[in-house]
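Case study 2.
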Amino acid sequence: DLHSRPAKHKYLKKVLKYISSNYLKISKLFSYKNKGQRPILFAFQNSQDYPFNYAFDVKCEGPKMDALFDKLYASIPEDKILILRPHPKFVTDFNFYLERFKFRNGSLPANWLIDDAKLPLSSAIKSCSLMISVNSTSIQEALCLGIPTIALGRGIYSGNNVVTEQTLDSFNIGKLDHI
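Prediction:
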């Protein structure tokens, strides 16, 4: 029955949206596909990690992770979907700073989604139009998959023109008009 398959697909999609929004509190399921837009992925790492602290040269009052969340909030346009992916081994660290951000701002922006980090990172990277990270092995994985990448910290890729290097102070995804 070829003609009933699209109807079943639409029905299943409605059911998944209903369950996601009412029970899982995910409001943007499938929305980036409907807009013909692929999301931006930010791959986080442990804020106490030496490479994070060494590579992420930012002057701020308070923790660097707070400054990072605040800059994302100020820099990501509302019409872009941002997926925040914590490092799977440091979800507690990520959630601590996420809760601090929500306390300062009231809630998460409507265009931000949290990835539960249960699927392989490569799946998340392949679905995005742009990946952002400070200094993480996820940068190398995105480069191997051909995904444009912004690096906010120093790493093996620094100075080689393989990523768009920005500082937190100069962070601007608008500089990448092709995304």
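The chain has seven helices and six strands.
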